[in-house]
Amino acid sequence: MLFSLVRCLILLLLLTLTDAGRTLMKIKERVRNLQLQKAKQLLLTHPASGRQPLRHVKEGRIHQQLDHFNRKNVSTFPQKFFVNEAHWQRPDGPVFLFIGGEGPIYEFDVLAGHHVDMAEKNGALLLALEHRFYGDSINPDGLKTENLADLSSQQALADLAIFHQYISQSFNLSHRNTWISFGGSYSGALSAWFRGKFPHLVYGAVASSAPVMAKLDFSAYSDSVGLSLMNEAVGGSEKCLAGVREAFAAAEALMSRNASRVARDFGCCQIPRDLDDQIELMQNLADIIMGTVQYNEEGVLMSIDEICTVMTNKSEACEEEVEAYNRLVKLSQIYHSTSEEPCLDISHEKTVKNLMDTSIHSGRRAERQWTYQTCTEFGFYQTCEDATCPFSGMVTLQSQNELCPILFGISQHSLPGRIAFTNTYYGGDNAHTHRVLYVNGGVDPWRKLSVVQDRTEEGDEAQTIFIKDTAHCADMMSGRVTDRCSLKKARQEIEKHVVSWLKKAAQEKV
């Protein structure tokens, strides 16, 4: 019970904010906070292996340069980190670094997860570093547009390099301590990039579900969701995908004729008369299915099998189009039945207002910061303009990136150049970097921007693991009895790679 709750919490910490719908973000935040409280209580009252796990975790702050690339700027910010020495075999044991992404880190990042399991087996010192401008690692007024100029993946990698130096001095580490980095989703990309840019600091990197290829129009996300809805191995079917297509087409058509009824059916706070509000509604409905696919069978959302059961269940004798619409309404009702929100807020005006909030209390929400990074580095806009998209074609590239000039004064025309720079700087999905292990799930839409093809370089082992029937970051969790065989095997393969790196590093240092 204890570790199942911790496992669920760790999964919630990995949920990326690239899911655009506001409803899904609110649900994630609410469930994450609830599970955090429960897990803390259980860890404090139920010793594990005769120890109080939290007693081995130390929280610290390192004062980082706001701009590592401008020596004239001496401004700093406090960056949060955690250390767990419980498993460390002093003095030469390895160092496992968990890299924070677009959200806060918690002590559980050095207490639970597959990287922690491997640390226990290999006597590693466990570290977790929070990403600048997220969580508690931000100065007052740091979210103002002029200050966000110091928020970038390049600065984050420099933070990691300085943190490496700081920890090495604090714990009297030497070249005999082999560093391995870990991350999932955006932080998985950071793990790969850290190894690529600072190979003398980190010996190997595990990059789970890592979108290392920046992409402006990420239409492949929705296409991939459609393919997963047809995947019979995880409960999908062609009938399920067809039902989703019909449902969204029917909802969009009805909204143009009777917006009041659509608002009533889906429990909206407002009647979606304006185009922007209509797009908000369509995006939030799509999020229910997108989130289900992305985190299939991980206990946070419904599974693909469950969602397809709803979308293919014919309970009434009526026209196919009406039946499909009713099933989408039912799916929405099931999903929002646990919501504490009195209604579904689809006001685009409120969305913009929230994203323009620069007060420090909004720092832990992270939407504004991540939106800035999509505008300046990554794109990742999940559009639905292709004929293959199973959702509403109202979600266009224009509707997705129009926030950049509104929020930050960043021209939409500059986005292609910014994204091209990111891929040139890091190498996209063809960066020839040794000892980076890319792990991806076949159900995860983000695999489209990761590295999924095995390749060997100068006799090095294969650099990828592909788990055909699992979802986003599933490999990062500690194992469960109910895990698919493919997932269990993948974790074994990850461990083989990590152990082989540690052995090779030890041989090189003899």
Topology diagram in text:
Elements: H1 2-14, H2 22-45, E1 57-65, E2 76-84, E3 95-99, H3 114-122, E4 125-129, H4 153-170, E5 179-184, H5 186-197, E6 204-208, E7 215-217, H6 220-229, H7 238-257, H8 259-265, H9 275-294, H10 304-312, H11 320-336, H12 348-355, H13 367-378, E8 379-381, H14 397-401, H15 403-408, H16 415-426, E9 436-441, E10 464-467, H17 485-508
Parallel strand pairs: 3-4, 3-5, 5-6, 6-9, 7-8, 9-10
Antiparallel strand pairs: 1-2, 2-4
Helix pairs in contact: 1-2, 4-5, 6-9, 7-8, 7-10, 7-11, 10-11, 13-16
Describe the structure using short key phrases.
single chain, 510 residues, alpha/beta, Rossmann fold, Four Helix Bundle (Hemerythrin (Met), subunit A), 2 domains, eight-stranded mixed sheet, two-stranded parallel sheet, 17 helices, 11% strand, globular
Description:
With 510 residues, the protein is α/β, with parallel strands linked by helices. It folds into two domains: 56-212 and 432-508, Alpha/Beta hydrolase fold, catalytic domain (Rossmann fold); 216-418, Serine carboxypeptidase S28, SKS domain (Four Helix Bundle (Hemerythrin (Met), subunit A)), CATH 1.20.120. The protein is built from 17 helices and ten strands. The chain has helices at 2-14, 22-45, 114-122, 153-170, 186-197, 220-229, 238-257, 259-265, 275-294, 304-312, 320-336, 348-355, 367-378, 397-401, 403-408, 415-426, 485-508; strands at 57-65, 76-84, 95-99, 125-129, 179-184, 204-208, 215-217, 379-381, 436-441, 464-467. The strands form two sheets. It has an eight-stranded mixed sheet, with helices on both faces. Helix 1 (2-14) packs antiparallel against helix 2. It is globular. It starts with a helix and ends with a helix. 49% of the residues are buried.
